[in-house]
Amino acid sequence: MLRAAGIEFEVVPSGADENIVEPDPEQYCLELARLKAGSVFALYPNRCVLGADTVVYLDRIINKPADRADAINILTALSGRIHSVYTGVWLAYPGGGEGGVSVSRVKFPALSAGFIENYIDQYQPFDKAGAYGFQELKTLADVTVIEGDEDNVIGLPVALVKNLLYKTGGERP
Q1: Ordered alpha helix ranges (H), the chain
Q2: 0.85 exceeded by the pTM?
């Protein structure tokens, strides 16, 4: 997504401790993004470092599923309901840091138990918040973004990232 937006980047895993307790999804994902960016920035203090974290929220914060059973439980809970996707982004740079959160609301149709199990077996969504990839479910099950940025649900709110880069002296988005 960044490459398509004309933003050059290098991926560096942060190794940041993600075990924080924060019941508010907006503060939770922003704090994790800040921790991730800060961890990598400590290694590259003369670079601009972007950290991001996405969570799904439906009655509670939902991260990546622990296993197949957890993925089934998550998708069963989302079935036929509207939930929110929060992505916190933090840009650490020499002299400071800036962050923000993008929120999107997503509508799921009712999904059968068989559909959920087949989806999990075929797409293995264990590395995705909420146990799903929007791109797949958009076509398979008519999952729709009813409010907010679709890029946020796919993986990264590019418009927010571009605005943060501009604030830090980059080119105007």
Answers
A1: 25-41, 68-78, 113-123, 134-141, 150-154, 158-167
A2: yes
